Amino acid sequence: MSQTELGAPTPKRGRPGYDREQVLAVAVKVFNEHGYDATSVADLTAALGLTKSALYHHFDSKSAILELALNDALDGLEQVVDDAEARHPLASDRLRAIVRGAVHVLIAKLPSVTLLLRVRGNSEVETTALRRRRDFDQRVTAILAEAQSEGLIRDDVDAAVATRLIFGMINSVVEWYRPGGPVDPDELGEDILRVTLDGLQSR
Amino acid sequence: MSQTELGAPTPKRGRPGYDREQVLAVAVKVFNEHGYDATSVADLTAALGLTKSALYHHFDSKSAILELALNDALDGLEQVVDDAEARHPLASDRLRAIVRGAVHVLIAKLPSVTLLLRVRGNSEVETTALRRRRDFDQRVTAILAEAQSEGLIRDDVDAAVATRLIFGMINSVVEWYRPGGPVDPDELGEDILRVTLDGLQSR
């Protein structure tokens, strides 16, 4: 759909009482099920039981919904690195805090992180999100490299590859984790630390 | 598109000389780029520069191409477990051989493994592939549990969760690995073993 089509809301921005957060949650669910590009505004209004003008009351465009969801996921992940940097002088401690925190954000914001992981850069909103993901990766890679120079993290694995592998494992959780299922969310973060930092082999 | 439409090749099954393997490779590339469901036979013939009847010369249907590609990936992965079981009496050795072998198969068969990882069960071919993936996961989980009972793999992580996490890391490689890029394919398997089994933390 064209931006222009969506960007021209009529004065009648109907149906107050439908919560903006709820509209966002339903839209992100539909995006994740059908793919963002394949989802039309008609698909969204059908899923929401809203008219187009009622949808425009909350958001100016489909792309504005995407942007909000991606920012929500990215803000959460960046906050984890900010917090780790503020709290832990040792880089290896920052790394542990980041793994734990990223798993926490992934589970707390599962739909928006899932959407973020599927972004391929087909629009300016998406390329901006990809750039923020790259910056995030680079910050974590720098912390991992610093932990290697501290001597607390082995240095026979390239820091950028190690970061990709750790986040590959963390992100893969969106493929199978279901809220309320048998896997405890707090335990999952500890399990990922046990596997990636401590190693599965008995010491 | 309907199966029936594709399943009724005309007698004129033209253009010999176009290699079946090449047709398969191009089709899998198109499936990975646009999604299997979104790809029409017209998309395939356009990408191949073939007529429909020439395509039918090689394959009876779009779904037959998908099936062949998924079987290729699954056969490779299952062979890794078969080989590990034949060669290594210790479960922890089998686990190492499986991680190394699975990374090798993923890189050697990158397009068909990528396709396999995106299958969501929208047809019988896909549900069969998902069942084989589940059986594979269960075999690896049983080996990991046996390695825990040997005392060589830590038992404070659930075997099924550990298997999912390790394969989450292995499978995430399809998102960024590019043949001929800076990351050495043999080294990558060793890196994944260093991270998951030995652990990144210096011992």
**Percent range for helical residues of chain A?**
55-70%
Strand coverage percent of chain A: under 5%
Instruction: Give the count of helical stretches of chain A.
Output: 10
CATH class of the largest domain in chain A: Mainly Alpha
H/E topology pattern of chain A: HHHHHHHHHH
User: Which residues of chain A form runs of ≥5 with pLDDT under 50?
Assistant: 1-16
Tell me how many strands of chain A there are: 0
DNA-binding region (chains A, B): 40-59
GO molecular function (chains A, B): DNA-binding transcription factor activity; transcription cis-regulatory region binding
Protein name (chains A, B): AcrR family transcriptional regulator
InterPro entries (chains A, B): Homeodomain-like_sf, HTH-type_TetR-like_transc_reg, HTH_TetR, KstR2_TetR_C, Tet_transcr_reg_TetR-rel_C_sf
